[in-house]
Every structure is written in C-alpha cells, then in structure tokens.
Design a protein that fits this description.
With 330 residues, this protein is an alpha/beta fold. The protein is built from 12 helices and 12 strands.
C-alpha cells in the first residue's frame, strides 16, 4: 500500500473515469486543461512535479524526456501502441511503461470493416459528388463497385483487432482468412479457419489486405512500391494500425497507376494529413482521421485500464498491462 499521497499528471483532457478512479484510490490528480497537445517542454515541467504520468501516444516519451524525468515511478499510456516511447531507456531507468491493449479492439475493427465497404463501393467519393451537385441521372456502367462475398481477407498482424476484423468479414461475407504473423494464432485458425502465410503470399492472394500490426523497425514502410506491385489490381488496402507501416508516396503512385483497386486509411504518415493530399480526391480511397478508438465505450475502457495500471503499481507493485517487463527483473 502507498505510504504517502502520490501525484499523477494526465497530459490530455481524457474521459473522466480515468481521473475519477485515481482520485477515488487516493491520488492527487492534475489534468492538462487546454484544448491543444502539450509541447514536450511543457510536459517535462508538469512531470517534474509528480510521481506518475498518464500520457497519450501523441506525447514524445523519448530518451531526452525520460532522462529529464527519471524520477517518475511509472508511465501509463492511454493507447495500445507505444512507438512514441523509448522503452529501452525507460527500462534502463527502472520506469515501467503501461498501456491499454484490447480496449479498442471492437471499435478499431469496426472502422477497418467500414473502410473496406466504403472503398469497395466508392462511398466517400460519391458522397462528395452529391455535395458538388453531380448526382443527376442513372448511368448503368458508371461508378461500379466490387462485391466482397467469398473474397479473401489478408490480415497483417493477427492480434486482437485483426481477429475482430476477421470475424466481421467471415460472418458478413464468408471471406476466406489468411494472415501473416511471426507465429501461429491457433485460436483464430480453429475458429475462423485462418491460414498462416508468408508476406509475399499475403500480398499475392489477398482481395482485401488489412493491416493490424505494431509499428516497429521490422514493419516500418513494409507496404511500399514493391509490395503494392505484388498485390492484385482488384485488391483493397486497409490500414488502421500506424501510418508509418505504409509508404504514403508509394501508395499514391500505386493507386494512380491502377496497381491496386483502392485504399481505406484511418492512419496516415504524417498525421494530421494535409488537406491537399491527393489521396483525398481519389475515387476509391476513404480516409478517416485516426478514429479507431473513437467510441464512448473504447475510450472509457482505455482510461480505466491506464488508471488501473497506476493504481495496481502502487498498491500491489504490479502493472496489469506492462510493455517492458524487464524493468521488474532487475
């Protein structure tokens, strides 16, 4: 149990349940109250006065920050991904890093599924056409989409979100499921008859290729010009993971050249996307502004998990969702 009242700083105006849980557990909580992201300098100033940090994936938790704020007992991130955190430095300094895996699986899979349908049927582009006054008369051969029933869904990174996407596609369209992972997902193979394939096979056989991997040195830019050239000309590329997994200029060129049918993106590189990005004007492209976790339920679950990481650390010396377990091995 805690022997003194610990201070926690929350770096964004997050769902109230996170701060409430911390206060009910006896923590002194301060929340960033401005409607803008913090600069790293501002974050370091605030972090210097607290024991624990409750941050977002938009905060730069690099070596400079960690060495400046090495006094922190724990950092709990309001996100499943943690590519913004220098976990090696955190571990060297003895700072556990918590995250919120699984909290947004349903919500993000919904976005991926919706983007797939929107791209297959030109939905975003045709909606803009109505606004521009271009809905006039019936053209039997114009704006024809493609049906999804019985197609092959390829998943790059069959974790919790990938499984939820596969379940939706299997249930709605009886799609065949293939996936590329470091290892077998035996549960998904049993439930969904999913088949593990190598990367080239994934590219070659997928009618819809949906990305659900982490961003790492291994995955950064893996969907590049070479990858898109190996895909079917009728294939749809979906990315709801991290924008850095695809090379955006290569994706634009592939779409312009007709190398693939279309793309649905909830993540871009960089973010936010510029309004003059050519992807926004393409007929078979649908882009959303990183809405994967944007449901009331998912955001509340994220806040709850992130708060409980901090509470459990001080009460039980455990972090339920820990990304650097080596920190406790010392």
């Amino acid at each position: 149990m805690r022997t003194a009242r610990k201070k926690v700083f929350i770096s964004r105006d997050l769902p109230d349940i996170g701060a409430r849980l911390l206060r009910e557990a006896g923590f002194d909580v301060k929340v960033w109250d401005q409607d803008r992201p913090m600069t790293q300098e501002e974050l370091m100033v605030e972090a210097s006065e607290v024991d624990a940090l409750f941050c977002t994936s938009g905060d730069k938790i690099n070596a400079h920050f960690l060495n400046t704020c090495s006094h922190l007992d724990i950092i709990s991130q309001y996100a499943a991904g943690y590519d913004n955190v220098d976990t090696d430095t955190a571990s060297q300094l003895g700072i556990p890093i918590g995250n919120t895996p699984g909290a947004m699986s349903e919500s993000t899979a919904d976005i991926a599924f919706g983007l797939m349908i929107a791209v297959a049927r030109w939905m975003f582009y045709m909606h803009k056409g109505i606004i521009a006054g271009k809905w006039d008369y019936f053209r039997p051969k114009a704006n024809l989409g493609i049906e999804l029933s019985g197609k092959t869904l390829g998943i790059f990174g069959l974790g919790q979100i990938g499984v939820e996407m596969a379940r939706r596609c299997k249930g709605a369209y009886n799609m065949d499921i293939i996936y590329c992972n470091r290892s077998h997902n035996f549960d998904a193979e049993k439930e969904l008859n999913a088949r593990l394939v190598d990367f080239d096979t994934l590219l070659r056989e997928s009618d819809v290729l949906s990305v659900h991997s982490v961003l790492s040195d291994e995955t950064r830019g893996i969907f590049n010009a070479s990858a898109f050239k190996k895909m079917k000309k009728t294939s749809i590329f979906i990315n709801t993971s991290r924008g850095g997994v695809h090379n955006e200029s290569d994706l634009i060129e592939a779409l312009q050249a007709g190398a693939i049918w279309g793309a649905g993106l909830d993540v871009t590189n960089p973010e936010p996307m510029q309004p003059d990005n050519p992807l926004l004007e393409m007929e078979r492209v649908a882009v959303t502004p990183h809405l994967g976790s944007a449901s009331v339920e998912a955001r509340d679950r994220m806040a709850t998990l992130a708060a409980n990481n901090i509470i459990s650390f001080y009460e039980n010396n455990t972090v339920p969702h820990l990304v650097n377990p080596e920190v406790f091995a010392k």
